[in-house]
Amino acid sequence: MKSDLERIFGPDGQLAQALPNFRARSQQLELAEAIGDAIAENAQLVAEAGTGTGKTFAYLVPALLSGGKVIIATGTKTLQDQLFDRDLPRVRDALKLPVETALLKGRSNYVCHYHLARTRSEGRFTAREHIAHVQRVAAFAERSTTGDRADCETVPEGSPVWPLVTSTRENCLGSECGHYKECFVMKARREALTADIVVVNHHLLFADIALKDDGLGELLPACNTVIIDEAHRAPDVATVFFGESTSMLQVTELARDTELEQRRKASDVKDLLDSAQAAGMAARAVRLGFDAGPGKLLRTDALARREFVDALDRLVEEVSTLADVVERVEDRSEEMPTLVKRAQAIAGRLSDWRDDSRADLIRWADVSANGWQLHATPLSVADVFRKETESSARSWIFTSATLSAGGDFSLFTRQLGLETAKSQTWISPFDYASAGRIYVPRNLPPPNSPEHTKAVIAEALELVTLSGGRAFLLFTSLRALRQCAEVFPQLLKERDLDFPVLTQNEAPKGELLRRFRELGNAVLIGSQSFWEGVDVAGDALSLVVIDKLPFAPPDDPVLAARMKHLEEQGGSPFMDWQVPQAAISLKQGAGRLIRSETDRGVLAICDDRLVTKGYGKILRSSLPPMPFTRERDEVSAFFDTQREWRVTTG
Predict the structure, then answer these.
(1) What residues pair up with 424 in beta bridges, in sequence order?
(2) Can you give the pTM of this predicted structure?
(3) Of 179, 204, 187, which Cα lies nearest the Cα of 148?
(4) What are the tens digits of pLDDT across the range 239-285?
(5) Strands 361-367 and 372-378: what pairing?
(6) Strands 372-378 and 244-247, how do they pair?
(7) What is the spatial distance between Cα 104 and Cα 214, in angstroms, rounded to a whole number?
(8) Which residues contact 218 (CB under 8 A, 6 or more apart)?
């Protein structure tokens, strides 16, 4: 395969001939060769590829050439669609290979004929807008060949209609459904079974590994290679699916569905309605039992609240009773047996959480203003994932721009049990020495000081003035974000600076990015959701300001439990976990700045610890190799030079 790859990725190769903007890069070829070797040897490879390496083509080409069945898992559904609709067809056509491809998502992404018909017949919505949404979904379902809600552009992604016209693992009727033969989910699964390349997302992959239930159960045993892109997200996604959670929403939805089915098929069974309503009320009473504001707390702390314990015991009792009542009439409809299973599963999870007997799980509560979630999170997913990767003769490829801290992959490999995997970094081909500067301001208050955010905003104002807008201001907390959003437009106005200000959550993320690109001189204020998976190439973005080093909050109960366990094992929680995790996160945020060979800009990190603390060296070594400065005058000179450069280059 090596000679084939050299030819394909060469300056006169098939990719160069078919793709106008393709440029031969030695890093891309080397990465493709390493992936090809791992596929041939059924090995594990952890591949960190810097921005601009071209990792997508680097794994697609050997995957297409392998001749085996390949599952590719992306970080998000958006990336999944981009890979399937754009990148994969372009490479396949360039190579002229007769390879069958398929796109597979979780159930909730496909219109469900049963739930759509039920929602239409019951008239659940009264708002004219939502009634129109249901009608549009129905029209879409009639003409669509896939039923993929992403293709239904006439209904907003956030419409309350979607949960009622799609199915979930809990409420899918399976083969008992009258629409089983025409089911969009089953059609997608059948296509995936016969395809050579199947594109999924992390959630579907890990849901299936954990639950063996979302469509890959038949695919994984047959596949030769699994490629996990954006792999830095994989440990967190695996943690979610290898654990358990129960929420107030799950209980209230169960109660709602039971009430609807009672009116539809068992109107003579009044105690069914009473039991459903009692379960819903008991779920809401649990929130009152916390008697506190939003926050996260360990199970032991939650159970120290008498009101919460009483409310939780009552909820277990009411949901168990509901399961018994529904079971007595489960032959009334095809929906009733599913309701029984849902109620029994919820009661079981609540009881397990209440009476903890497993030391390998961290049980904790997440309380919001209007609801709650009870979680059982694995202390580690390494053992269970190691069994999956070692259980059969297939290759596993993990790739991302951010998998190591200063070249050390041990945190990532330890989290997923990949200690024996080969790990390697391919550096970005970008000329970072010319592309930008890293700036750490002097004389800022300590990051834990109440005055820090105010000082960051003042510094950001000076920098935005120098850059001419075109900036991301990224904050590690929502409180700091809100503080900046409240004052920054006025501060710009006082300086007669006409830079549009966009703030996270004032519009969908995609819409904000579209506006940012089109405006050309905007300032976007964001937090974690804009630290990764955001690509703004060109002059629209020339400044990224990060307020603090992204250490995980110390009050996170899962982190606290893992730190304690690591310390008990003789490790250093701070140096072995928190520092490398912060380095990977910082690298993600920094990666927003330089996205193409012609991008130029400044990365400002408003945290002295990057310079004054010993661990700062590890964090700095994870950043792009741009010249470092602490002088704002040098930042000003850099932007002046870049303005001249843009004029010269046109």
Answers:
(1) 47
(2) 0.93
(3) 187
(4) 999 999 999 999 999 999 999 999 989 999 999 999 999 999 999 99
(5) antiparallel
(6) antiparallel
(7) 10
(8) 189, 193
